[in-house]
Amino acid sequence: MITIKIAVIAQTKGLTNAYALQKALNISPTMASRLWKGTFKQIATGTIDRLCDLLDCEPSDLIVYSSDKPKAEKPVREPQLIKTTGTDNTMLTTIEVAKRLGVSRKTVNDYINQRKLRAIKGKQNHNYVSESDFEEFCRNRSQSQ
Length: 145
Hints:
This protein is α+β, with helices and mostly antiparallel strands. 48% of the residues lie in helices and 12% in strands. A hairpin with a 6-residue loop joins strand 3 (82-83) and strand 4 (90-93). Helix 2 crosses helix 3 and helix 6 (94-101) packs across helix 7 (105-113).
C-alpha cells in the first residue's frame, strides 16, 4: 500500500494547509489540494524534486510503500490420478510421476522425449504415464544403477 505523507511533513515545516503549499511551490490550487490530500494519480519528478527542496526531505519520506498484507502464495495444485476409459490401468500426470521419483516435471518430460518412459499425449499436449509403464520404468532404472 502506498502512503502519501506530504501533508504530515509539510506541517512539521510550518505549512498548515494546501493553500500554503500552493503559494510555496507556485502551483495550481487543484494540484496543491491533491498533493495535500494525497489523491493525485501521478506526480512529475520535477514536482517531487521541488517538494523535497521545500520540505528538506527525501522522496522516500513523501511517498512510502508498505505491505500491509502478506503476499499471496500461488495455490499448489495437487496432481490428479485419472482413469483411462475402458481399462483398470491408472494414468499418472507428469507432476505425479515427478513427485514419486523426486525429480522435476522437466526431467520426467525429458525421460519421455528420450523414450525411456512411455507416455501418451492428452488434452493440451499434457503427457500421461500408465501405472504399469511407471513401474516398468522404475524397475529398469533401478537395474541400470
